[in-house]
Amino acid sequence: MKHTSISLLSISILRIMLSCIFLVAGSSHLFNVEKTVHRIDKAKFKGIAHLFGDTNFWSSHPEQVCW
Fold this sequence. Notes:
The protein is mostly helical. The protein has helices spanning 8-31, 33-42, 46-50, 55-60. The chain crosses the membrane at residues 6-25.
């Protein structure tokens, strides 16, 4: 069986790139609150999202988000 070694630099770059994907997606949700709330309300399993908080608050008070 042949073993392949992967450099620590390659692993570090992969982890940084993967983290950046989530940071960009998360910031997009923060800047587009109304669009995000609308997508949650249309989702099939929106009940799970409502366990974390009420989306009616965010759709009626978008000015409360001051990021």
